[in-house]
Amino acid sequence: SSGINAEYGELFISFLLFLRMLMNLLYSIVLLSFLGKSVTLKNQEYADKQPNIIYILSDDLGHSDVGFTNGFIETPNLNRLAKEGVLLTQSYVQQVCSPTRGALMSGRYPIHTGLQHDVIYPGEPWGLPLDETILPQILKEYNYSTHAVGKWHLGMHKWAYTPLYRGFDDYFGYYLGGQNYDSHRNEKGLDLRSDYFDENGKFVDELRWDLDGRYSAELYSDHTVDLVNKLKSEENPFFIYLAYQSVHAPHMVPQRYIDQYSSHITDKKEKVFAAMVSSMDEGIGNITKALENAGLADNTIIVFSSDNGGNVNCVGKVTSSNYPYRGGKRALYEGGVRSPSFIWARNRLSPSKSNAMSHVTDWLPTFWSLASLQGKLKPNKPIKTKPLDGVDQWLAISENLPSNRTEFVINIDPKPIRCGHQVPHAGLRWKEWKLIIGQGCPPSGWYPAPGFADLENACGPYDSYIELYNIIEDPSETKNVSDKFPDIVKMLTDKIKAYNATAVPLGNKPRDPASNPRNFNFTWMPWLDMFDEVPDEAYTLTKEVWLAGNQLSDDDISSSMETCIAFDQDIDLVEF
Fold first, then answer.
1. Preceding amide of 402 cis, omega within 30
2. Nearest CA-CA partner of 335 in 438, 441, 215
3. Nearest by Cα to 174 from 188, 154, 158, 200
4. Lowest mean pLDDT among 24-38, 217-231, 480-494
5. What CA–CA distance (Å, rounded) separates 520 from 543?
6. Longest dimension (CA), the chain
7. How many CB atoms lie under 10 A from the CB of residue 399?
8. Are 240 and 53 in contact (CB under 8 A)?
9. N or C: which terminus of the chain carries fewer CB neighbours within 10 A?
10. What's the Cα-to-Cα distance from 140 to each of 47, 166, 167, 224, 294, rounded to whole Å?
11. Are 305 and 93 in contact (CB under 8 A)?
């Protein structure tokens, strides 16, 4: 009798537990249904709206140079956007400047566009190939207005390589890869311009002599604010590509930004660098305020990224930090290619963190998908591109799903570069694994944020010829496990060989002396068109028009440095 009662008691308890589990399950279903409906209703209002898109690209910004990655520099506006948006923890770019910009615009790896080696230096007659269909050209087929601000660095020897002939409606910035922030000169040649088509559809290239002495980060931010205010009355969506010069060398910034770091940073160069980041952050804050005031914020997507890791090599004083990642600009290690990134779209994305692996080539197909409302809209005319290396990541980002890619080529470069690898090198990420063949460096060390304990991190000694890392378990790349996983090494080596078989020749060309800005009233001009009797592309300004103006002597070419603090002014102002 007592055994039977105990048996019934156990059955009764099991029945109660089952009822409780069933009630919890029903509650969960109802709750999820409610949440699902609320998310759907929230997004439904924008499901049939093409979003405005602003892509912000910083220059040489390290992973720990911003507050939203726990860096020491004050970036309240970026922090807020990152907190309200989706933090992209595995967002990859190229290891130097021109290749990243080319990959962004084309959706293709640099090995497929000829941009895999180094960068485009001043006076070199090459650029992103003209047979590439690039991002603004695609967006225009969905009735977007397209606007470029800041650094171009994808070719300027002919007009055909400059922004307006590549699909942008207007442009304000500089064609080359580096310059003085204040005088806007590189090698004594002015390179700050406003390009646009006039009311008759004629191309105009206006050199901005009038902006001498104005700090570039403020100019680019203010111009973008003006664009937003102008575009608020337009019916069509817009795309703004904002490529800051900050924080590329030479390091200089107005004093008022330095003053805010007077108490907790004592080193002068560290103060200047931090102040440069803060100047950019202030400008981004002004842009977001303009979006709010114009009523455009609800339907605008903002993406923020750096073009490569912070520059911690071939500099007198390390002021940037990619910590805890290894290396920096020019290196195939995480510090050279893993970018501090986020995407903000408050009526499309809930605040979250995405660990999905993404690459800079992915933004073209992702923006294409957004512009076409995931294929619901057809382009004005058929769009033909070369095979894309990027993939649409919108679903992975918006639904916090695994990435749509499992691998990407970091780079394959058969030639050495200054301040970088001295033997041919290649890198590939596949799932959790990363293989480097040749030198992944320099730089090769771990560089803490300024103000923290320094580590001994010389540019060498160079590491072994084969390096294999498990990036999920060892994101700082401290343990080369190539000897433990020979099968993985072989498989990834075979993948690199297969990619290398698809690589096009290097596009690099030696400097052309005819490009000398002295030939054009101390300005940088598309010199091959300026000297041609019949230019390949129509243009308004000619060599004769420029040389008919007032000539400037060497003594006249000077920077208005009264309002700026600068150092390392003896550096040749070109992209390393």
1. no
2. 441
3. 154
4. 24-38
5. 6
6. 116
7. 12
8. yes
9. N
10. 20, 11, 7, 19, 23
11. yes
Alpha-carbon dihedral 543, 546, 548, 550, rounded to 10 degrees: -150
Answer yes or no: is pLDDT of 247 > 80.
yes
- How are beta strands 203-207 and 193-197 bridged, if at all? antiparallel
Chain centroid offset of residue 207 CA: 26
Find where tokens 């382009």 sit.
379
Q: 283, 217 in Cβ contact below 8 A?
A: yes
- Contact between 167 and 152 under an 8 Å Cβ cutoff? The reply is no
Token pair, residue 211, equals: 């902006």
Report the distance separating Cα 250 and Cα 575, nearest Å: 10
Task: Check residue 451 and give its pLDDT.
Answer: 55
d(CA 567, CA 245): 16
* Eight-class DSSP state of 59: S
Closest CA to 131 of 162, 97, 161: 161
Say whether 153 is catalytic: yes
Prediction pTM value: 0.86
Q: In the Cβ-directed half-sphere of 340, how many Cα atoms lie within 13 Å? A: 28
Is residue 238 within 8 A of residue 50, CB to CB? The reply is no
Tell me what the mean pLDDT of segment 329-354 comes to: 96
Residue range 44-74, pLDDT digits in tens: 788 789 999 999 999 999 999 999 998 889 8
Per-state percent for the chain, helix, strand, coil, to nearest 5: 35, 15, 50
Closest CA to 309 of 327, 286, 296: 327
Catalytic residue among 63, 97, 184, 251: 97
Of the candidates 63, 112, 117, 153, the residue annotated as catalytic is 153
* pLDDT of the residue at 540: 42
- Print burial letters for 18-57: b (CB count within 10 Å at least 16), e (below 16): eeeeeeeeeeeeeeeeeeeeeeeeeeeeeeeebbbbbbbb
**Catalytic status, residue 117:** no
